[in-house]
Design a protein that fits this description.
Layout lengths: L1 E5 L5 H8 L4 E7 L2 H10 L4 E4 L7 H7 L6 E4 L24 H11 L3 E6 L14 H11 L3 E8 L10 E8 L12 E2 L13 E2 L3 H5 L10 E6 L7 H7 L4 E6 L5 H8 L35 E2 L13 H4 E2 L9 H8 L16 H6 L10 H7 L3 H15 L1
Parallel strand pairs: 1-2, 1-4, 2-3, 4-5, 8-9, 12-13
Antiparallel strand pairs: 5-7, 6-7, 10-11
Length: 393
């Protein structure tokens, strides 16, 4: 089955379909050049369109993607995004957002299956008129001929070493008896801790990253040799056919930041450090910052699944044993990207808000951390893809 990935980012969603060996990733649409470069590098035979999907006509899209997709996947922004003219309507209404472009692709290509992912809170979000956004999404998909199903899936229930909940919407031309996959794993340290002998334990953070090269802050390289063997089945799977480790570059922390991390135990965050190691105000002449965010720079437990990897995860979490934040590759492992999947662009970039203030929007790109944190975990996408195949045969 042929897959078109829309709002594709680095391609985690379609990668999961590819990993089943039952789908062919024929194309992608992505606005950001660096994310598109990552997609193209790892899917060299795919047709990647880089740009704003709203700028392309139906005829152009049909001509560009001559391999008509059987499946369209994507995560269009569905809240807080309106068309350029905000007076045109409610910005929380998905009909005024990029979701309308997802619908347009369904209308012009008529795929058998459409799969959309988004934040779990979308299931409770309402428009200004008190309409549930998820109901609008369902109705718009039904209008173009689909049966619609939606639920919230936790990636930890499917072997991803991360507590990550996502809203999944499946639209199918045929009615499905079981549109969503049955859990395969159980997190005995977390929410789904009821004993079930038929489920495997959810891998922990340390299960995911313990075999990677041992590096400190300011160390690592974009390309490194493995220093030992894989230690468990997840690591063997993620290594796959890769001969090297890519994107394993640690942040260039200051000496003071390393000292701050050294003072922290597992579970501690920036609010738990000694007073003399608290953050200092920017341009504050040595005055300590009064704004401390409990979720920033938390040292994680090695023997539990990771917290949700976000686009800014370079500042969210501290390695369980090292006095540094995660490398992009460690984040990729936690997201279940295989080691052979190489991320393009720089590891980090200047703050997007700063670039906007200074009129440097042309320098605004999704860095490696952003690409990884924004992605759908490939192993979650894989079980969704496998279940779809089982339902439509």
């Amino acid at each position: 089955m042929k897959v078109l990935d829309t709002f594709a980012g680095a391609g985690g969603f379609s990668l999961g379909f590819h990993l089943t060996k039952q789908y062919d990733i024929v194309g992608a649409i992505e606005y950001d050049q660096w994310a598109a470069d990552t997609f193209q590098f790892n899917h060299p035979n795919s047709n990647v369109l880089v740009g704003n999907i709203e700028c392309y006509s139906d005829d152009f899209l049909l001509d560009f993607f001559k391999d008509k997709p059987d499946v369209i996947v994507g995560g269009p922004p569905c809240q807080g995004f309106s068309i350029a003219n905000k007076r045109a309507g409610d910005p929380t209404d998905p009909r005024n957002a990029l979701f309308r472009e997802f619908i347009r692709l369904g209308r012009i290509f008529e795929p058998s299956i459409m799969v959309m992912e988004n934040v779990p809170n979308l299931i409770k979000t309402t428009t200004y008129n008190k309409e549930l956004v998820i109901n609008i999404i369902s109705e718009e998909l039904k209008k173009i001929g689909y049966f619609v199903y939606y639920t919230i899936l936790n990636a930890a229930d499917y072997g991803v070493p991360q507590i990550r909940k996502r809203l999944i919407v499946i639209a199918s031309q045929k009615q499905l008896n079981q549109p969503f996959p049955i859990p395969t794993h159980i997190n005995k340290n977390g929410e789904n801790d009821l004993f079930n002998p038929y489920l495997s334990p959810t891998p922990t953070l340390w299960d995911a990253i313990s075999d990677l090269p041992d590096i400190e802050a300011r160390q690592g390289n974009e390309e490194m040799e493995y220093v030992g063997d894989a230690q468990n089945s997840l690591q063997r799977y993620l290594r796959g056919h890769s001969k090297k480790v890519y994107n394993h570059v640690a942040m260039k922390h200051s000496k003071r930041l390393v000292e701050r991390f050294a003072s922290m135990s597992c579970g501690d965050s920036i609010t738990d450090v000694p007073d003399h190691l608290r953050p200092i105000k920017r341009n504050g002449n040595g005055v300590f910052s009064e704004k401390l965010y409990d979720q920033n720079n938390r040292r994680l437990h090695p023997d539990k699944p990771c917290h949700t990897i976000a686009a800014s995860f370079y500042a969210n979490f501290v390695h369980p044993y090292k006095n540094r934040n995660f490398t992009p590759r460690e984040g990729a492992r936690i997201q279940t990207f295989p080691d052979w999947y190489v991320f393009q662009g720089k590891p980090t970039v200047v703050s997007h808000k700063l670039l906007q203030r200074e009129g440097r929007e042309a320098e605004k790109h999704l860095c490696q951390y952003n690409q990884i944190g924004n992605a759908v975990p490939p192993l979650l996408a894989k079980v969704i893809a496998e279940n779809i195949v089982s339902q439509i045969k």
